[in-house]
């Protein structure tokens, strides 16, 4: 009939039908190797319905499960110079960055900052995105965390960070390393304002992130079976020349050894965070509890 029906409609149809192709309906659990029906797996917050394995879930998929009625506000990250060192390895860094941004629509960097109500209380949440250049921390992530901390202080809200990172962003060299101190100072400001700072360690939390803000929480909650550590096990094994114990650098091992305060299933995260924040911020409830304990 016209250009719209002859050209645009078939193109749209092709796009839609490609999405519903059978190979996109199923996926295999990397742990138990069972086939999972995509829709069930998504409804289960990307936890295997057979063995309970927690797969890496992206920030925008996680957010609706955290806030009241799944409603929240996204805060765009401050703009930073995109390639300050004009870095080039096999590819130019700005080209690599653009490619990652094109692939990850909705999140322009390895961090997403959101705020909203959780059990009626305002919370600021910053989530790292491992799918965006390995969750690497460059200037944009550092700026984003500083912004999230400032936002928490301004709104007198707790700051909750979901960490997931391979470490510093090598393409930004020393500027990337500077974010270790900047983010440390940022979370310090939240604590100085008397507000809780809670870290949820998710798979994997390694490198510079584990050497800065991710290990400075008032409470450290971890998702099951997540890898958490600074250097990888092979590097450690080669350095100390000793066999590492089974489960080394996994959430459960770190819980046993006092590095993590609790290992919490993804389905229980929201209620756990609400309870933790309430313990910090509602003195009346904790007082009445201690009175009850004393009386009992
Ligand atoms: Zn499984």
Q: Would you mind describing this structure in some detail?
A:
It is globular, with a radius of gyration of 21 Å. The protein contains eleven helices and nine strands. 35% of the residues are buried. It is α/β, with parallel strands linked by helices. It has two domains: 40 residues, no CATH class; 239 residues, 2-enoyl-CoA Hydratase, Chain A, domain 1 (Alpha-Beta Complex). The site of zinc ion has 8 residues, from loops.
List keywords for this structure.
7-stranded mixed sheet; 9 strands; 2 domains; alpha/beta; 296 residues; 2-enoyl-CoA Hydratase, Chain A, domain 1; 16% strand; binds zinc ion
Outline the fold blueprint.
Layout: H1 3-19, E1 26-28, E2 35-37, H2 38-43, H3 59-66, E3 73-75, H4 93-103, E4 111-118, E5 121-128, H5 139-154, E6 159-165, H6 173-192, E7 197-205, H7 207-210, E8 219-222, H8 233-240, H9 251-256, E9 262-263, H10 269-281, H11 283-295
Parallel strand pairs: 5-6, 6-7, 7-8, 8-9
Antiparallel strand pairs: 1-2, 3-4, 4-5
Helix pairs in contact: 5-6
Supply the CATH superfamily name of the largest domain: 2-enoyl-CoA Hydratase, Chain A, domain 1
Largest sheet: 7 strands, mixed
Q: Any idea what the CATH architecture of the largest domain is?
A: Alpha-Beta Complex
Structural class: alpha/beta
Question: What name does CATH use for the topology of the largest domain?
Answer: 2-enoyl-CoA Hydratase, Chain A, domain 1
Q: Could you tell me the strand content as a percent range? A: 15-25%
Order of strands across the biggest sheet?
Answer: 3-4-5-6-7-8-9
How many helices? The count is: 11
Mean pLDDT metric: 91
Q: What is the H/E order? A: HEEHHEHEEHEHEHEHHEHH
The gyration radius over C-alpha positions equals 21 Å
**Which ligands, by name, code or SMILES, are bound?**
zinc ion
Q: What is the terminal-to-terminal distance?
A: 81 Å
Helix content: 40-55%
3D shape: globular
Low-confidence stretches: none
- Briefly, what CATH class of the largest domain? Alpha Beta
> How many distinct domains?
2
Number of strands: 9
